[in-house]
Design brief:
The complex is a heterotrimer of chains A (433), B (377) and C (226). Chain A contains 18 helices and 4 strands. By secondary structure, chain A is mainly alpha-helical. Chain A has a domain of 261 residues. In chain A, the strands form 2 sheets. Chain A has a two-stranded antiparallel sheet. Chain A has a two-stranded antiparallel ribbon with strand order 3-4. In chain A, helix 5 crosses helix 15, helix 6 crosses helix 15 and helix 10 runs antiparallel to helix 13. Chain B has 377 residues and is α+β, with helices and mostly antiparallel strands. Chain B has a domain of 242 residues: Cytochrome-c3 Hydrogenase, chain B, CATH 1.10.645. Helix content of chain B is 45%, strand content 13%. Chain B is built from 15 helices and 8 strands. In chain B, the strands form 3 sheets. A 3-stranded antiparallel β-sheet of chain B has the order 1-2-3. In chain B, a hairpin with a 2-residue loop joins strand 2 and strand 3. In chain B, helix 3 packs antiparallel against helix 4, helix 4 runs antiparallel to helix 11 and helix 6 runs antiparallel to helix 11. Chain B is globular, with a radius of gyration of 21 Å. Chain B starts with 17 loop residues before the first strand and ends with a helix. Chain C has 226 residues and is α/β, with parallel strands linked by helices. Chain C has a domain of 133 residues: NADH:ubiquinone oxidoreductase Nqo5 subunit (Beta Polymerase, domain 2), CATH 3.30.460.80. Chain C is 25% helix and 21% strand. In chain C, the strands form 2 sheets. Chain C has a 5-stranded mixed β-sheet, with helices on one face. The chains are: A mainly alpha (433), B alpha+beta (377), C alpha/beta (226).
């Protein structure tokens, strides 16, 4: 006695599929294509080989292998690519996804488990995709008495702010989405948005647990933002700049962690608190306040919050690398692009193909990215480690740590930096350059 | 005139300062019960426990089944400690029916109940770990539990609900080579639980968080009638295995663990220290056990107790566990009253949580060694 | 009732007669289509190798002196008001009227050094229209009393149509004497309908708030299908 689709007919099912395909094609050709052309009208098109790259030219040149590389290269250097793909959202999201997988396996090894194992055959590599599909397919439940517009927009704001934060991190020489002169100030300003979003979302959900969680998050983030800012002032004093790229360039010979280990430790602890990671996961403490400010989120809204959290994790780890671990600086280990391919072309059997436009990326950029990724992943692993070791801290101990210990240590760090500056060891005209 | 409410129901009064929180029964930090907590800021001003979500009427059910049929369902209130909850039942029924238990069976009972005590303590410790946000402390005890579960499975044939102790002895004899295997696993187990100290009990964050919270003084512990680890953590040296030794506990070599602090940390440390004592008892019992002999005095079918009553108690994983059985010449008991440690410790929850911070709620609540299913019976 | 009388015996002697095997309708082995006689049954069990030797009455135990002295103290203080049901090793049972239970409880706490209650259980006797409330008292402070349990029992009238809290099924609460009885008495109230006068918090504990039946542990509350 089947109750699901009692009058199922295969022919009708196929007919409905063809119907859907027809309507999709019709709507795309009537609405989609004109929209694409209207968009292209406003986008500044690049000039490749002396010709303006119109969409029609792009289509024909894509078929010509000798002109594919220049087109791709020109696309890579557009702002659009930077925001969407490489130093921006795509790269950060990829690293964030890898972080989630690594965290699960890493934590499982600490706890004598195996972690995700079956999904994707090889060590559960596709587990994350499965979880994402599950979250997408889940129903989004909005509490009846919630303030709906704010509740809807909070996850988007969270991801957007996290992505904005990630876009400030320079990955390789010249490879950064936005490079303002006061980069560090912009970082502080972006971090300052998170407590506001958290409080808005928790209040709009109109639940006691989210409210307590939001208040806790507010306390925690505000009390740890002050030591966070103070711990970075030492670097600003010594480098004399707020620009993140210039800070990286100042670390060609030595890293700032060598001279300011106290600042690095303070900054690391504040990272843990800002990210709400164990032992500072009070806003989401599940045994006390269910899930804290995330209690009422369901389905993909929760998924977006998680994505934002891991983007934030990447951005903070990247910031730590940039400020204390020398960013992209490191010995040249990436092999240079073979010269004979540029001069002689690739010989496959009887055919010799000359490909203009190679190499796609220069050696500095690839080497810098490699070092940046290695250092960032190392920092991320150290951020993940306390989860397997520590229990959750209590709110009064947390505030005590933030307001008394960390601020004091941050001031000691500033005094060390000032001492090094006025003793003439570091800084402009110092002994070590 | 306000409308008359049935007993138990209270209307929530809305206050602009006091917020009422329903911790449970769907809350991850409550177990199968509800704590109605009123908070003023971060401080708990009153707490009203509301158990009964898993009340199954075990005492009523026992009146409809005979003494043998009662065995499997009476262990259901706390399946992780099933040997210890059946122990006083068997002792009381033996008193009523006048049965002598063979010497070997007494030792096997002790071994089974001590193994089961470790299994329960590890389960409790795992939940204590996750209540404090320590996920490694959830996984490690849950994994190490398997060692003794395997041993108990070899003894009784079931992994959790053993129904191994029966009036008159134990259900079946030990399997071949059990003693070597048991000694080997107990040795490994002792080595393993020593590692918990480094990651959990000496963890600075944990000590900061639990030391000095939820302090129960010695006089209050006695006045409130607490039992088990809660009592011993408050400095009262009371262990029924020493005070009222049943079966062969008087022949065995072990000590009672007592701490004076009476805070959450001491309460969580006592069951952990007692696991070492359990290992000592198991090893000693294996050494002193008669190597062969009967393990069960056969009962006649459908045995009847006289017009009599018996009250026997043992030290379970959560404290004293007593069975009061009244019989009236019928195959079924006339009345079975189960006095469980969890229910006796329930009175501490409102007493200790009042004035604590909300963040201390899970650690204080779960350090009471409270098992909601057992308390509801 | 007869159950009460037999409990009054001082020694724990019980007589389980093997002849009762035959009469017992609930005996599973005898519920077969052919009913066995006594000799056949004995032969049947001997063939099966089942030992029936424990059918002899259990050993009678001597009355222990320490427990006896405590019982004597209570009797010398209260005389006719209390009935000592039995004195056994580590166990004493005292029965008293509900008017006197507070005095007896204060005496037990202050003079005999019992300081907490282990359980408060009710027993329903519908034939004699009474409900018995049994307090099992123990001691932590006195070293000697660690293994002793004193059962203090009282009987309250039982009504056929109960109205918990409003009818005559009530007894003074011992919460002022033993603080630890608080939750036990709440449980006894909801399960048997015994109202404890002077208890500060006579609410439901385990039962659901909307329970509208008679108190479930009374004998006239039947489990369905049994």
């Amino acid at each position: 006695m089947s109750t699901i689709a009692p009058e199922f007919r295969l022919s009708r099912f196929i007919a409905s599929l063809t119907d859907i395909i027809f309507w999709v094609l019709l709507i795309f050709s009537l609405v989609g294509l004109p929209l694409v052309f209207i968009l292209l009208f406003y986008i500044k098109l690049p000039i490749v080989n002396g010709q303006l790259l119109t969409p029609y030219l792009a289509m024909t040149w894509m078929a010509d292998p000798s002109r594919t590389i220049p087109i791709i290269k020109s696309l890579i250097h557009t702002e659009f690519f930077r925001i969407i793909a490489f130093p921006g959202f795509g790269f950060a999201a990829l690293l964030a996804a890898a972080t989630i997988f690594v965290e699960r396996k890493f934590l499982a090894k600490i706890q004598l488990r195996v972690g995700p194992l079956y999904c994707g055959k090889i060590e559960g590599i596709l587990q994350l995709m499965g979880d994402g599909l599950k979250l997408i397919s889940k129903e989004i439940i909005i509490p009846a008495k919630a303030d709906k517009p704010i509740f809807w927009v909070a996850p988007l704001l969270f991801v957007g702010t996290a992505a904005a934060f990630a876009s400030l991190i320079p990955v390789a020489p010249g490879w950064v989405v936005s490079n303002p002169n006061v980069g560090l100030l912009v970082v502080f300003a972006t971090i300052g948005f998170f407590p506001i979003i958290v409080v808005l979302s928790s209040w709009s959900a109109n639940s006691k647990w989210t409210f307590i969680g939001g208040i806790r998050a507010l306390h925690q983030m505000i009390s740890f933002e002050i030591p966070l800012i103070l711990s970075l002032l030492g670097i600003v004093i010594l480098t004399g700049t707020l620009n993140l790229t210039e800070i990286v360039e100042s670390q060609q010979h030595y890293w700032w962690i060598v001279f300011m280990p106290i600042g690095a430790i303070v900054f690391f602890i504040t990272i843990l608190a800002e990210l709400e990671r164990i032992p500072f996961d009070l806003p989401e403490a599940e045994s006390e306040i269910v899930a804290g400010w995330l209690t009422e989120f369901s389905g993909m809204m929760y998924g977006l919050i998680q994505l934002g959290t891991y983007l934030k994790l990447y951005a903070f780890a990247g910031l730590f690398t940039v400020l204390f671990l020398g960013g992209w600086n490191g010995p040249m280990v990436w092999p240079p692009f073979p010269q004979e391919i540029i001069t002689n072309g690739i010989t496959i059997g009887p055919i010799t193909a000359h490909i203009p436009g190679l190499p796609l990326f220069d050696q500095d950029m690839l080497n810098g990215t490699l070092w940046f990724v290695i250092k960032t992943v190392g920092v991320i692993l150290v951020i993940l480690l306390p989860r397997g070791v520590f229990p959750r801290i209590r709110i009064d101990l947390l505030l005590y740590t933030g307001w008394y210990k960390l601020i004091g240590l941050a001031f000691i760090n500033i005094f060390i930096a000032l001492g090094l500056l006025y003793a003439g060891v570091l800084g402009h005209g110092g002994l070590i350059q | 005139m306000t409308t008359q409410l049935p007993p138990g129901i209270q209307l929530e009064t809305v206050d602009d300062r006091i917020m009422t929180l329903n911790v449970g029964p769907q809350h991850p930090g409550s177990g199968h019960m509800r704590l109605i907590i009123k908070v003023d800021g971060d401080y708990i001003v009153s707490c009203d426990p509301d158990p009964g979500y898993v009340h199954r009427g075990e005492e009523k059910m026992a009146e409809y089944r005979n003494y043998i049929q009662n065995i499997p369902h009476l262990e259901r209130p706390v399946i992780h400690d099933s040997c210890n909850i059946l122990y006083p039942y068997c002792l009381a029924v033996e008193d009523l029916l006048g049965i002598e238990v063979p010497e070997r069976a007494k030792y096997i009972r002790v071994i089974a109940s001590e193994l089961n005590r470790c299994v329960y303590t590890l389960y409790w410790l795992a939940i204590y770990g996750i209540f404090l946000g320590h996920s490694t402390m959830f996984m490690w005890p849950a994994g190490d539990r398997e060692l003794f579960i395997d041993l108990l499975e070899a003894m009784s044939g079931a992994r959790v609900t053993h129904a191994y102790l029966v009036p008159g002895g134990v259900r079946n004899d030990l399997p071949a080579n059990f003693e070597e295997r048991c000694l080997r696993q107990v040795d490994y187990f002792e080595k393993r639980i020593k590692e918990y100290q480094a990651i959990f009990y000496q963890n600075p964050v944990l000590r900061q968080r639990t030391e000095g919270t939820g302090i129960l003084s010695r006089m209050d512990a006695i006045r409130l009638g607490t039992t088990g680890s809660v009592l011993r953590a408050s400095g009262v040296d009371f262990d029924l295995r020493k005070k009222e030794p049943y079966d062969v506990y008087e022949n065995l070599d072990f000590e009672t663990q007592v701490l004076k602090e009476g805070d959450s940390y001491a309460r969580s440390l006592i069951p952990y220290l007692e696991m070492f004592e359990s290992c000592r008892i198991i090893k000693d019992a294996l050494r002193k056990m008669p190597k062969s002999g009967s393990v069960r005095t056969k009962l006649k079918p459908n045995p009847k107790g006289g017009n009599d009553e018996a009250y026997r108690r043992v030290e379970s994983g959560r404290g004293s566990l007593g069975f009061h059985i009244i019989s009236n010449n019928r195959p079924e008991p006339y009345r079975v009253k189960i006095s469980v440690g969890s229910f006796r410790n329930l009175i501490c929850i409102p007493y200790l949580l009042k004035g604590e911070k909300l963040g201390n709620m899970p650690s204080v609540y779960w350090s009471l060694n409270y098992w909601p299913v057992e308390a509801d019976r | 009732m007869d159950s009460k009388k037999k409990v009054d015996k001082e020694s724990s002697e019980t007589n389980i007669d093997a002849t009762e095997l035959e009469n017992d309708q609930n005996n599973e082995s005898n519920n077969d289509s052919t009913k066995l006689t006594k000799e056949e049954a004995k032969k049947f069990y001997e063939e099966k190798g089942i030992d029936l030797s424990h059918d002899v009455p259990i050993r009678s135990q001597p009355i222990p002196p320490f427990e006896k002295s405590m019982a004597d103290k209570i009797v010398s203080k209260f005389g006719q008001k209390v009935v000592i049901n039995y004195v056994r090793p580590n166990r004493i049972r005292v029965n008293t009227k509900r008017e006197d239970i507070l005095d007896v409880a204060y005496f037990i706490r202050d003079e005999l050094k019992f300081d907490h209650a282990e359980s408060v259980g009710g027993v329903d006797y519908p034939d004699s229209k009474e409900i018995e409330v049994v307090y099992h008292l123990g001691s932590y402070t006195d070293e000697q009393l660690g293994n002793k349990i004193l059962a203090l029992a009282t009987r309250v009238p039982r009504e056929d149509i109960p109205n918990p809290g409003k009818d005559s099924t009530r007894t003074p609460s011992l919460r002022d004497v033993f603080y630890s009885v608080e939750f036990h008495e709440r449980e006894c109230f909801e399960m048997f309908g015994v109202f404890f006068e002077g208890h500060p918090d006579n609410r439901r504990l385990l039962l659901p708030e909307d329970w509208a039946d008679i108190p479930p542990f009374r004998k006239d509350f039947k489990i369905k299908g049994r």
